[in-house]
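thread: overnight batch results

M.L. [08:02]
morning all. the overnight job finished for the chain we discussed friday. pasting input first so we're all looking at the same thing
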Amino acid sequence: MLKVRLFFVLISIITASVANAQASSIAISGIIRNKADKSALPYVNVVVKNEKDSSFVAGTVTNDEGRFFIASIKPGNYRLYISFTGFEPKEQPLFVGSLSAFLDLPLIELNEQSTVLEGVTVTTQTNGISNKLDKKTYSVADNISQSGGSVLQSMQNLPGVTVQDGKVQLRGNDKVTVLIDGKQTALTGFGSQTGLDNIPASAIDKIEIINNPSAKYDANGNAGIINIIMKKNKQNGFNGKVSLTSGLGSLWVRKENLPSIRPQYTFTPKINPSVSLNYRKDRVNLFLQADNLYTQTLNKNEFVTRSYDDGTIINSQLKRNRNTNFLTTKAGVDWSINEQNTLTVSGMYGSEKIIDRGDQPFFNGAISQRLRLWQFLEDELKTTAMATASYMHRFKEAGHLLNVGFNYTFHREDEQYFYDNYLPSSTGTDAFKLLSDEQVYDFNIDYIRPLKYGRIETGIKLRNRSIPTNMDFRPGANSVLDMEAGGWADYRELIPAVYGNYVFENEKWEAELGLRMEYVKIRYDVNPNHSTYKSDGYNYTQPFPNMRLAYKLNENNKLSVFYNRRVDRPNEVDIRIFPKYDDAEIIKVGNPALRPQFTNSIELGYKNTWSRGYFYAALYHRFANGTITRISSTVPGSTLIYAIFQNAGRSYNTGMEAIVNQKVSDAYSFNINGNIYRNQINAFTVQNKYPAPNTFSADQRSAMSGNLKLNNTLRFAKGWDAQLTAVYLAPDIISQGKILSRFSIDAGAKKIVQKGKGELFFNATDLLNTMVIKRKIDGMGFRYTSNDYYETQVIRLGYSYKF
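M.L. [08:03]
and the structure it wrote out:
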């Protein structure tokens, strides 16, 4: 503790000396609130003008906490002008002296305007691209064409985002870290992404896409970070919102089943009730958010033709009918102890129940003879509980903060699998029971100290994570898995980290330099009598620097250049030793020898803004060592395909992204964004050890790909809004083949009712029924083509009421 105090004293002395040495230019800051309910007011315009001639000096807008910060004000007498839609403007004198480098103004409160306009709804939209060009922020409520679905579905129309096999990709790369309220949780995976298709979008306020994270973020996720910000109300008194969404999917059969299997789901129901409650009085704010998403889905309907080198051709269909019920509840309390200290305690509970019923028939090339039938039942229950405590101390200086946080997560996977294998002469059943309990402890301290021309950020974080897993395997007749496929394994992870970040800004230049140092220790212990794998682990200490340099050409044009180094550590499921059916003849298994993938990336960004819109463009290049990918191969004497994660060597991702946002009139606006990139995987050779050693080699492969998205928003009289979205995804390479182009159109409309308290919406996805996943795979000893006619067409109707 003494060392910590000395550290902060030293930092204070250094920063104070820097400030005192350069007091010719002053930074002013303050907080703006609603006088009626004391709530913070974001996006308030704050302008400083000369007292003598009223000439413009500087301006800004407040952040989400109602706080503003204006740098580089010379000593003198000024006038401060504050304005915000729906509130009375305010003006006050401002004297800036030369003895202090920082000026923290007393609390400023605005009065609501008393004028009531019947039948008029005032809406505002934030600029999606941050001034730093480091992230893009989108409101879920603005995505009308995907309202009422899951978080994953809401992301599909966002710039730079694509969805493939239930995973999010940023600029064609799926190494994305997903955060909830800035934290990694078991709901979305630690250092990975899971479960996004089951989290209801009704619980979400905003989604941030961070392509170039600073050193304060964990180093995991080379493609970037997606931060999901959940809803939280802070209005005075008792208030809330209730919503109900219902829908139907799989409106007709897109492709008929192969003979002799159970029907595929049609007219699948979707039901999503949600409630948000808030009570605030004096210094205490209580909040509750609860959502339940129940869906039936034709989760997969893939038709495959597989050809082997010996001339054998097999046709199959993998159909999966899925029932899902996902409950999420978040509750907590914010306690403003005084003006300088705030304590927040919250808890989250999630329960995800999934039942899959599937069929996979296998026929000869002419589909005249059924070779076998494989049916399965997967019964999964995933339970997550999280407790969070955070304390924030505000020093007297504006923006001078100390944050301390503790987060505990418990996540249980309780899964049962039953696979019936019908052969011409016999029937067998494989049964699995898997139980995995994950516990994670996170502790962090973050310190922010404003400087005359920017700020410093520093902090420490400690993570301790353990995942003991048990697999009970009961093989049936003719099982293709080895008899010792079950057993136990224990994953342990320890990651202490420290970071520092320096931000500088003046009238023309911006700079941000950061460094994160992480020590990682991974240990994976396995059942000693496992037929192939042994206990393994690794540790390293690595630096992860980041840099941003920006030049302001003028008030409306800015150039930025970024550099960062990041890592993708194998997740526990990537190294899990227990084989699992991906389908009847594709076996997935982890690899304890898998090692981290390190990535360096550079980016050049440009933004031009005008009164009714903006243009944003970025050129980027990433190169990775130890690229993590799943390799599929066969072993002599078997047609089974074994899919195993491997480090495949060096890979590259180079591209350009562009966004144009334009408000054409009060009735129409559009957003068009495109991304074109080149993926390359160098030649590599790896050895798959399971179930027997076999070597796989691949030549260098590369491909150009991209996507194009168009969002059209229409605003009509009497509170009507409408949206039409079109998405085109170009062909792209995957680990051993390519995925072909895809296209879809979504549409939606909403209406404000009940004097602004209620809202009705209706939407439909994939109107033209064109979204089909088509793949071509070249493996070792085999090739296959597939078309997946999974559920894409869904219609939804929803209603919400605020009180």
